[in-house]
Automatic annotation (TrEMBL):
Region named Disordered: 34-61
Protein name according to UniProt: SH3 domain-containing protein
Ranges of biased composition (kind: Low complexity): 45-61
Taxonomy, superkingdom: Bacteria
Species this chain originates from: Candidatus Aeolococcus gillhamiae
SH3b domain: residues covered: 71-120
Length: 281
């Protein structure tokens, strides 16, 4: 059974585990708004935000969507020690009205009822608006761009842009070895970095297509493009998940990053908070 939902509170609470129940009750509270706008009321006397916002374009404007399954604190000023005015749930859309580089970088934002500051950590929010995919059969949940769509088959689910060739291919198996060799025909390895996907540590491997440019695949088909990124996740002794991102430019990796940073799945690593940061700032 597959569902596309905004704010699937019951499922997310069950997947993340009872140890985080008290956190999730605050982080995932919504009012049923289809856009996931945060509506947590400000604390008494805390309605006014402070901090010096930049007037630059780029990060200081537009919508950003909360990626973190635990939600994201909205603070009175650009500091983790500042008063918390509310919490934006995963999928909440915040309008950016300013930006500062102080204290590691913060966005000044406007929610439905709360104005304040959120950390500019790129693993916790992403530019644009997103839709939530949740599947009990495939045992994961993730956010994908609102302008994308997806198609399922017995073997996989393909998320794809409706305006370009990029695709994210998700496959399940019993073991990582079942996915076969990494990379693909005509691709050369160009880089590797360590990523953490809902508590599971894995490598993100990047590849570049060599030789003649690959032919454009049919729309929605996860065919080869100029670049390929892969993640292989061992979820437990008998469950694994493969993510393949076909794309054309390095800037496109932001879409893939938002996808895996928003993922949850019902396995032990994902049910426990990260030791260094049990709650988003």
């Amino acid at each position: 059974m597959t569902a596309v939902r905004y704010g699937d509170v019951a499922m997310r609470t069950r997947w993340i585990g009872a140890a985080l129940a008290s956190v999730l009750l605050a982080a995932c509270a919504t009012t049923g708004s289809p856009t996931g706008i945060a509506t947590n009321p400000p604390v008494p006397g805390g309605a006014t935000s402070s901090g010096k916002a930049s007037s630059s374009a780029g990060p200081a404007s537009g919508a950003r969507t909360v990626l973190s399954p635990l939600g994201l604190n909205i603070r009175q000023s650009a500091s983790v020690s500042s008063t918390r005015l509310g919490t934006a749930a995963q999928g909440a859309v915040l309008q950016v009205t300013g930006h500062t580089d102080q204290n590691g970088g913060w966005y000044q934002v406007q929610g439905q009822t709360v104005s304040g500051w959120v950390t500019a950590d790129p693993t916790l929010t992403a530019a644009g608006q997103f839709t939530q995919y949740s599947s009990q059969d495939r045992q994961f949940s993730a956010l994908y761009p609102q302008s994308w769509t997806f198609a399922e088959s017995p073997a996989n689910v393909v998320f794809h842009s409706t305006a370009a060739d990029q695709t994210i291919l998700a496959r399940n198996a019993a073991h990582v070895a079942d996915f076969g060799a990494s990379g693909g025909g005509g691709f050369n390895a160009t880089g590797q970095e360590t990523v953490i996907v809902c508590g599971v540590t894995a490598n993100l491997n990047e590849y570049t297509h060599s030789g003649a440019p690959p032919a454009s695949p049919a729309p929605g088909t996860p065919g080869p493009l100029a670049l390929l990124a892969q993640i292989r996740l061992r979820l437990d002794a008998t469950h694994a998940l493969a993510l393949d991102f076909n794309y054309n430019t390095a800037a496109d990796l932001d879409v893939f990053s938002a996808f895996y940073n928003s993922m949850t799945f019902p396995f032990p690593q994902c049910q426990l908070p990260a030791p260094a940061s049990p709650s988003p700032t």
